[in-house]
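User: I'm putting together a small comparison set for a docking exercise, and I want a reference complex before I start. The sequence is below, and the ligand is NAP. Could you produce the 3D structure with the ligand included, as structure tokens?
Assistant: Of course. I'll restate your input first, then give the structure tokens for the complex.
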Amino acid sequence: MELQNQTALVTGGGSGIGRATALALAREGAFVIVAGRSAGHLAETVAGIEAAGGRARAVPADLNDLDALRRLADGAGDVDILVNNAGVYPFMPTPKQDLESFMRVFDTNVRGPFFLTAALAPRMGAKGSGSIVNVSSVAALQGIPDAAAYGATKAALDALTRSWAAEFGGRGVRVNSVAPGNTRTENVVKALGAEMFEEWGRTGNPLGRLGRPEEVAEAILFLASPRSSYITGVTLPVDGGYVARG
Ligand SMILES: NC(=O)c1ccc[n+]([C@@H]2O[C@H](COP(=O)([O-])OP(=O)(O)OC[C@H]3O[C@@H](n4cnc5c(N)ncnc54)[C@H](OP(=O)(O)O)[C@@H]3O)[C@@H](O)[C@H]2O)c1
């Protein structure tokens, strides 16, 4: 087990990619703190980790609330691994994007990770080590219709990844992104419609299928672990070749 004696904080750990990541980190011995708004979903993740012999704690928190975010950071103790995974994806044509959902997608996908990292990275740096993985999207790397605001938030997150790699690298903190392609998670299937999403999987990438959350989690685990000790500041597509084909 490569993450024994390490503490990981996974935002959005109650579902989808965040849950699969929390399970993968716990399997490797990390104590995992999962944060998100739904206490019930977080409890299910903790129960899954404990059933597999791992250790975890749920911290219900709305990351759009900066006081709640601060309490989460303060209460988390010594965090070795931070996975900024929580995100919202209000796909819609640009002229229809209302101000409220525009602000919310930037608050959740950019402001939350920014201030959580601002609180935790210096503490990692003081210890001389740490790994931060941001969950971006192929929408940051390719033009996708109806995903302008969402894609802009994920491109911002990739820019933060590079800046933070430069800013904190000298103190032993690595910062990377993964950019998932179309990944079959319950909420995304619900939001986009099962039929259309399956079709995107079949035709949208060279492997001809949707990704599984566990496949994204394996890439996050690699970037979080010492196996990637000389990698920082990169965005790794986990997308069945979607970006490569263009
Ligand atoms: N699935 C894909 O095809 C795909 C592709 C590219 C990128 N991604 C990215 O992958 C990440 C995970 O997505 P997913 O597919 O696993 O969908 P998901 O299951 O909906 O995951 C999003 C998570 O974020 C949490 N969250 C949302 N707003 C929050 C807030 N204000 N405070 C705290 N937590 C919040 C949600 O929990 P609560 O609702 O309980 O708060 C949920 O657990 C997202 O950043 C998404 O943009 C997904």
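The chain has a mean pLDDT of 97. The chain has one domain: 7-235.
User: Thanks, that's exactly what I needed.
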